[in-house]
Amino acid sequence: MLHFVAAAAVGTAGGLLIDTIISGGSVVKTIRRGYEGYFRNGSDDAATLIGISTTNVFREVSYNLNIIPPNLNPGFESCKTLDECKQHSKSGIGFNTPIQITPISNTNGKNCRELTCLADGCEDAYTFPKDDIKTHSCPFGTNYKVTFCPSRDTTPQETTTAGPSLTGRP
């Protein structure tokens, strides 16, 4: 289960489904096995992304933050730094909104842990296409809190979620 919380008014886009979250509001999404996609603030491709995948064979949920500028110019699809990617993309922008994703349970401090991106160039996000150490995973059944525009105090606030999530049921 993804519990989206907004400190400012935002819209999320995951596939064809779009929700608007008012400032201080929240939306809960249940993601089933076989899902692969992104959530973002707004519909522009040039946006901070939260990638979620439940398609792997290890019964895990893979997740990441991504600030790679979209629409890279031909020949630069494998740029090696954020600056190079910015210089060779249509928009030069990949970051638009601070985002944080926090596993509520099953955290181990290593691969199943909170990711935060408060500014362009943040350490927890993909900044170029092969920045693969930025993908993290947690077991199915983990609940997550996704916060758009988190405060700079990244201490997770108490949240309550109920029911199973990401159970792997078709």
From TrEMBL:
Coiled coil: none
Family annotation (InterPro entries): Osmotin/thaumatin-like_sf (IPR037176), Thaumatin (IPR001938)
Protein name (database record): Thaumatin-like protein
Lineage: Eukaryota, Sar, Stramenopiles, Oomycota, Peronosporomycetes
Organism expressing this protein natively: Peronospora farinosa
